[in-house]
């Protein structure tokens, strides 16, 4: 009889320097931002046909995006998952070291950051090319530029979840080759390693799809639209193997909060791709 894998129980602290402890999850955030910057430089080098970002734009965009991810992710968790609790304990909203981040909130935070960044720049340009665009045009250039850079960061985040043994999957057949016991769950049951499923789907697979799709010139907004569709589908599928939050459980129609939040992404992304394609066609 096949016995399930045991989660390795990694030490959450990667490096200790005296009183300073560097956690794996923090390192994953660092890797995500480095991947964003490195891939952004590749885009700037001309791999992405309609990208003419300048280095100063990328440096500033990374800062704006990081703030959007952290603030949006935290506020998304507060309002999407535990609004009643934080209404009673408002000061704990600032206690980010206790955990509690939501991707969908982080996405909204990044959108707000891109809108602000687009409004703050009258043009985006490099190599002497002046891309003086209206505000909405600058936003779509930025959104299409950023979309292929995000999935690898998501992959690092899910790797951090797996290292920490958190956000484990639903109970599965203990004889299945993927079955794993997460001691943090406290029940000794075999579960799906759903963090790795999400790493593969919304991280690596989505990165390959977007990277290939963005290699050719696309109507402004279509790459961002494909990101919304791709992430929404990947998250919706992976949630079938992920254990719902204990304080929420499954919601209407047996779907999780993550799935309900992903449905608008899928529909909105499809609408954006159609709208972008029709707009380019009518502008010819």
Topology:
Layout: E1 5-6, E2 13-17, E3 20-23, H1 24-47, H2 55-80, H3 83-88, H4 103-120, E4 123-126, E5 129-132, H5 135-146, H6 151-164, E6 180-181, E7 190-191, H7 194-213, H8 222-238, H9 257-283
Parallel strand pairs: 1-6
Antiparallel strand pairs: 2-3, 4-5, 6-7
Helix pairs in contact: 1-2, 1-6, 2-4, 4-5, 6-7, 7-8, 8-9
How many β strands by DSSP? 7
Q: How many domains comprise the coordinates?
A: 1
Per DSSP, what share of the residues sits in E-state strands of 2 or more residues? 5-15%
Average pLDDT value?
86
> Ranges with pLDDT <50 over ≥5 residues?
126-130
- Estimate the global geometry from the Cα principal axes: globular
Largest sheet: 3 strands, mixed
Q: What is the CA-CA span between the terminal residues?
A: 65 Å
Q: Helical segment tally?
A: 9
Would you give an account of this structure?
The chain is mainly alpha-helical and 284 residues long. It has one domain (16-283). The chain contains nine helices and seven strands, in the order E-E-E-H-H-H-H-E-E-H-H-E-E-H-H-H. It has helices at 24-47, 55-80, 83-88, 103-120, 135-146, 151-164, 194-213, 222-238, 257-283; strands at 5-6, 13-17, 20-23, 123-126, 129-132, 180-181, 190-191. The strands form three sheets. Strands 1-6-7 form a three-stranded mixed sheet, with no helix packed on it. Strands 2-3 form a two-stranded antiparallel ribbon. The longest helix is centred in the last third of the chain and has 27 residues, at 257-283. The chain is globular. It starts with a strand and ends with a helix.
